[in-house]
Amino acid sequence: MSGYAITPEPPYYAVIFSSQRTEGNNGYGEMADKMVELASKQKGFLGVESARDDVLGITVSYWDSLESIKNWKENAAHIVAQEKGKSIWYQGFALRVSKVERQNFFEM
């Protein structure tokens, strides 16, 4: 299923990051790519899905445990990106962590 994260059978966790961007790129695209690459190397990372229009972006990353999510949150390079997000790239954001209990896929 191209475009979807390949996840194991539940349960696992999803971190849902919704954001409203400021104007201009200001290095955002490069940092976003770097963070996906870095996250994918973290213990417990399962996959990521992301969509963005001119205003709203939603990125969902999947993890095997709450401990893996905590370790990613505390990653030094990720902390730098978080601070730049607050000071440069985002007008606002919401972060939600949820446990995935069930999944279904459809593809023609």
Q: Briefly, what CATH class? A: Alpha Beta
The percent range for strand residues is: 25-35%
- Tally of extended strands? 4
User: How does the overall form come out from the CA principal axes?
Assistant: globular
If you consult CATH, what is the topology?
Answer: Alpha-Beta Plaits
- Arithmetic mean pLDDT: 93
Instruction: Record the strand order, biggest sheet.
Output: 2-3-1-4
Rg measurement, Å:
14 Å
The proportion of residues forming helix, as a percent range, comes to: 25-40%
Low-confidence stretches: none
SSE order, as H and E? EHEEHHE
Largest sheet, strands/sense/barrel: 4 strands, antiparallel
Distance between the termini: 10 Å
**How many separate structural domains?**
1
Class computed from helices, strands and strand pairing? alpha+beta
